Amino acid sequence: MARRSVLCHGSRAISLLYGNTLRPLHASLCSASPQPKAGFKPEKVAVVTKTTRYEFEQQRYRYAGVSEEDLKQLLAMKGSSYNGLLERHNIHTSNVEHIVKSLKREGITVQVVKRGEYNEDVVRWADTIISAGGDGTMLLVASKVFSKDKPVVGVNTDPERSEGHLCLPVRYTRAFPEALEKLCRGEFRWLWRQRIRLHLEGTGINPNPVDLHEQQLSLEQHNQAHRFTSMDNLNRTGTLHETFYKPSLLPVRSLNEIFIGESLSSRVKLKSFKPHVNLLLHRASYYEISVDDGPWEKQKSSGLNICTGTGSKAWSYNINKLAEQAVEEVLKIGKSQSGLDIPLNQELIEKVTEEYNKSLVFSPDDSRLFYSVREPIVNRVFSSSRQRGFATKLCVRSRCWDACMVVDGGTSFEFNDGAIATISMSEEDQLRTVVLEN
Amino acid sequence: MARRSVLCHGSRAISLLYGNTLRPLHASLCSASPQPKAGFKPEKVAVVTKTTRYEFEQQRYRYAGVSEEDLKQLLAMKGSSYNGLLERHNIHTSNVEHIVKSLKREGITVQVVKRGEYNEDVVRWADTIISAGGDGTMLLVASKVFSKDKPVVGVNTDPERSEGHLCLPVRYTRAFPEALEKLCRGEFRWLWRQRIRLHLEGTGINPNPVDLHEQQLSLEQHNQAHRFTSMDNLNRTGTLHETFYKPSLLPVRSLNEIFIGESLSSRVKLKSFKPHVNLLLHRASYYEISVDDGPWEKQKSSGLNICTGTGSKAWSYNINKLAEQAVEEVLKIGKSQSGLDIPLNQELIEKVTEEYNKSLVFSPDDSRLFYSVREPIVNRVFSSSRQRGFATKLCVRSRCWDACMVVDGGTSFEFNDGAIATISMSEEDQLRTVVLEN
How far is CA A128 from CA A28, A167, A252, in A? Predict the structure, then answer.
């Protein structure tokens, strides 16, 4: 699928540039040019940093008053390398310092914000947000940006370990001034990445809009409350009550994908109130799906993945891609079944595999959704028409015991039997990002 | 892959028949035959029954003192049909009664045991166990049978809703006396299904053998204890302690598969002690794998599935099978890349798809393991040599944050960073089952 040009956004960039808080081009800081180009130079930048594995391990044992020496031993026992983790941590930290220094050198006001401190206030304060980490950090940063005018830039602070396909090309990690220079000169293009929005209705959900800053706590409270509503109400009022909610737009926008499926720690929660019971069940997910207002179809699978163009390179890609081993097998069988003398050399197999996998990826500014049924269960009892395809709108009704909808692998919503999700896209949900040529 | 004959087990069946508690053939009950055939007639049969969805929903609200009328309303609100669930429940119950009556009519002593009451004492008492439910019930029944001499027979009590590939052909569900007759006459063959055994070593595991009856409780206690060992020890003794365990054989045998992967409810448990916090993370699983004592390879994927011949028709099949849509696409690209005029009609696509998918299934008495890497992550940073293949032995070292090994979708073991699992097969772990011709 050929990438669509985003040049049409150029004029929009100019009008936005002069119509909002971004400072117009300063001729003194960049190469002089008689025509003002759509350059970009922010005044206030928030740099959101990831938590490294080293920091995570430290925090994990902090409450136990573990010393560095103890931590080293603990990690060694697990077969992890303390030195290795510390090295990656230092690389990340050093790259963050490089970014911060580069920004300050241009007279830009910088606020460095740890992942855990990042919230809507930070988003409001900054005119640009830089994600300093990997793709996970970019997803987190995006998750709190709801305006399609606020630019978000990703920098991969550990290129050797992180794929960073949402980040700038890796060469800019240690050459960030170059990136700033190009931005200033307009040698870049805006990429408005389409995102997914969710409506939920039915039972077993919490639709009340909550302040994003409070989301974690409120959702938890609401979910716990919901789980015991029946009992509470019975005790208090003598009547049973399960609330049926009308369609509500959820306060999230998905940059990569929505995944719908059974939680692993499924029925156990219902059987006992012991939080750490370790009997995890892999249950198939059972739901009904309607594509573009088409007929409802019952499906059983390992879950449903609905992605954006951005997400078509992420989990969706891994669900659908084929290994050379599989392609070779298909071609061999095709050869033997058709009786034709097809030369099945390694080169052909590689080419076919590559082209097949490439066809799974589409442009981030494409306004279509792409759905994939993960490991569809097709047998005497269940069937599935299409394993994957494009759509403008998807409706999914849960028939699950204890399922969830996971947004960008980071936030989830209960999605139990009776809940109906409507998944769609709207231009207002776009995320404004930057593409620098390599 | 052609099915291997199990006729070689015939003589073994006879020696077992006369060497254990099974009663020898009674000429008076079956068609007379001059030669004693390897017939099979048990004296004490335990019938283990599944929990129907209807029973589950009832139990779910029982504590709230919900009446049938209330339950009906609750289900209706969720879009579920109370009548539908009750109908499936009645079908199952009626089929169980049919089985029990058929057994009693032959003078066999029957004990009907609900799923929750099934334990090692029941296994010891019975000379044969019948699973009355679906494949899930068969897996449960098998999970407590450790002797390769104890026959297990599965009957599918809801053929319209359940696949039952571990059960007798569906025609015997309402014609169980026929099945008993054939067993009696020796018109069947034994199928010793190979199972998987697990050794665990390293940190982050609980290797202590526990009474299966107590397993749920003990595992939980041990897991909770393990999670706080560091802190407890520090408080009590002033020293930090993480136990490194030597290789231990776990008290489980897998009939379908072992699945290794990250739990969904990952880091959240470590950050807070709130059991129902709903921030679920989908994390890729990171581990190292060595096939048949080969070189260690680092992999990142959605998990690793290691199955038996029996399991090759289950989850493994769904992981690896291809939809016609995908096969068609591969053949189309192969055609265009090779420049050959291959006639790609629907019939060819169907045939190729069918043959490809058939090649994923192998015989339950095959002593090999089959491993599949689920959604391998292949990028700048990670690579994977083979996505799947056969093996005699597999070693896996966890590099996961919070992963588990799930046995037959029903029991799990912590499998965190530093833990090493050795996965293999042994003849002594076989499960004795029955194959009746259709």
Answer: 21, 15, 20
Contact list, A355 vs chain B (CB under 8 Å):
333, 337
Q: Is the dihedral of CA B130, B133, B138, B139 positive or negative?
A: negative
Q: How do residues B314-369 score in pLDDT, each as one tens digit?
A: 989 999 999 999 999 999 999 999 888 888 999 999 999 999 999 999 999 999 99
Q: Per the structure block, which two tokens stand in for B361?
A: 């299934």
ipTM score: 0.77
Q: How far is B275 from chain A (nearest CA, A)?
A: 5
Best CA proximity match to B282, nearest among A391, A288, A303: A303
Place of tokens 């792409």: A370
Q: Which residues pair with B196 in a beta bridge?
A: B254, B425
Full-model pTM: 0.78
* Cβ–Cβ < 8 Å for B172, B436: yes
Interface test with A, best of B318, B404, B414, B420 (most A CBs within 10 A): B318
Which residues 193-232 of A are in CB contact (within 8 Å) with B? 202-204, 216, 219-220, 223-224, 227, 230-231
Is B65's Cβ below 8 Å from some Cβ in A? Answer: yes
> 3-class SS at A365?
coil
C-beta of residue B245 within 8 angstroms of C-beta of residue B413: no
Interface of A with B in 359-398 (CB under 8 A): 359, 375-381, 384, 386-388, 397
Q: SS3 for A382?
A: coil
Edge to edge, the sheet with strand A369-373 lists A388-391, A369-373, A304-307, A257-262, A403-407, A411-414
Phi-psi region of A293 (alpha: psi -120 to 50; beta: other; left: phi over 0): left
Tokens of A270: 């219902």
- Residue B137, judged by CB atoms within 10 A of its CB (0-12, 13-18, 19+), counts as buried
In this structure, what are the phi and psi dihedrals at residue A171, rounded to the nearest 5 degrees? -65, -20
Where are the alpha helices (H) located in B81-214, listed in sequence order? 82-105, 120-125, 135-143, 176-185
Residue B279 contacts A, CB cutoff 8 Å: yes
The tokens 């599949």 sit on which residue?
Answer: B372
Q: Which residues of chain B fall below pLDDT 50?
A: 1-36, 207-241, 265-281
CB pairs under 8 A between A and B: 241
The set of residues, in sequence order, having a beta carbon less than 8 Å from that of B65 and lying 6+ positions away, is A234
Q: pLDDT (tens digit, 9 = 90+) per residue, A5-49?
A: 333 343 344 333 333 344 443 333 444 444 445 788 999 999 999
Choose among A221, A201, A219, A195: nearest CA to A209: A219
Task: Yes or no: say if B75 and B140 are a contact pair by the CB < 8 Å rule.
Answer: no
Please identify among residues 335-364 of chain B the ones whose CB lies closer than 8 Å to any CB of chain A.
337-338, 340, 342-343, 348, 351-352, 355-356, 359
Residues with Cβ within 8 Å of residue A361, at least 6 apart in sequence: A1, A309, A312, A313, A317
Query: Where do we find the tokens 């039997």?
Result: A417
